[in-house]
Design brief:
Structural class: alpha+beta
Order of helices and strands: HHHHEHEEEEHEHHEHHH
Strand content: 25-35%
Number of strands: 7
Number of helices: 11
Distance between the termini: 67 Å
Length: about 325
């Protein structure tokens, strides 16, 4: 954790003042809009038209009254407070970009969902417990036209977290939870099952070869994955590849918008730091030491040797 940061009272007052002004502005606009059905009644005296327009105005008014102050609060928090919370959580070198995101080519290489039109926010690049990582809230979607109307067809909505390994290994292993909504993964990989029957009921495993998958996803790792799943909501997909661990969590986002805070107070920083705990939990639980992945390399080499041996035997039998 970084050095404790203290927020200037003037910043808190400035944020609350601007939120209050946005609330007043929303109420004024809502009041002005109410003139529309009143004017319509005075002109037409058509009761049904007035009711229909009145209902529409009330819906717009309700949206303005609730959404405008909330938008102002989220925008100011991400400008003034969230960068401080990220540095307190992950150190002074941590980088936060409210409108930033992960490079699209990286997401394509990750191959855990279809990458099309991207909308990203809350990008963080930092280090925790010696592990470098990047993460962001990611939406991937396509605009689909149907007649005169258009809609967004989503391929993924959630959080993406990419961490470094202390030691890379050859091969690829993917673990996809049944609740993961990012689409099909592991098309070119072999499906495998772990030693845990309960785990196999909730997850599908794919690997460069079954031998690798079986030995990488150990009881120790299964326990850690289950712990993460119990603490964090969303559908998980984990990909171990080279020197990276890719994690896509559908339906989960950081937000960092202080949704439960009606008024910004001095403890806002502490609350936002708590919202970053899921990232710490994932990295802490999956920060496997170098010996684990050294063993994995040995397993891969053994598997290659066994395949070559089996191929030689098959060739000898065929020739005889």
């Amino acid at each position: 954790m970084g050095k404790k940061v203290v927020i200037d009272d003037e910043i808190i007052q400035e944020i609350n003042s601007k939120i209050k002004k946005s609330r007043i502005r929303a109420l004024i606009i809502a009041a002005v809009l109410l003139i529309i059905p009143i004017g319509l009644w005075l002109i037409t005296r058509d009761f049904m038209d007035v009711i229909m327009v009145g209902v529409m105005v009330l819906i717009v008014d309700g949206f303005l009254i609730f959404s405008l102050p909330a938008y102002t609060k989220a925008k100011l928090l991400k400008q003034k407070i969230v960068p401080l919370a990220v540095k307190q959580a992950f150190g002074s070198k941590a980088i936060y970009n409210a409108r930033g995101g992960i490079d699209s080519n990286v997401l394509k290489r990750m191959a855990l969902f279809k990458v099309y039109t991207l909308s990203q926010e809350d990008y963080i690049s930092a280090e925790f417990e010696g592990v470098k990582f990047i993460c962001a809230d990611v939406d991937s979607y396509q605009i689909v036209k149907s007649g005169d109307s258009t809609r967004k067809e989503y391929y993924f909505q959630g959080m993406v977290l990419i961490t470094d390994f202390n030691k890379p290994f050859n091969g690829e292993v993917v673990i996809k939870e049944n609740d993961y909504s990012g689409g099909r993964v592991g098309k070119s990989l072999e499906e495998f099952e772990t030693e845990s029957i309960d785990f196999n009921k909730s997850y599908k495993g794919y690997a460069t070869n079954k031998h690798l998958g079986f030995y990488v996803i150990t009881p120790q790792l299964i326990e850690r994955l289950n712990k993460i799943r119990r603490l964090i909501k969303g559908g998980f997909c984990f990909k171990f590849c080279s020197d990276k661990l890719y994690i896509a969590i559908s339906g989960a986002k950081n937000h960092l918008e202080g949704k439960n805070m009606k008024k910004i107070s001095a403890d806002v920083l502490e609350q936002l730091v708590k919202e970053l705990e899921p990232i710490k939990t994932i990295i802490g639980e999956l920060n496997l030491d170098t010996s684990y992945f050294r063993d994995v390399d040995e397993v891969i080499n053994e598997a290659k040797t066994e395949r070559k041996k089996a191929s030689r035997i098959k060739e000898e039998v065929t020739n005889n």
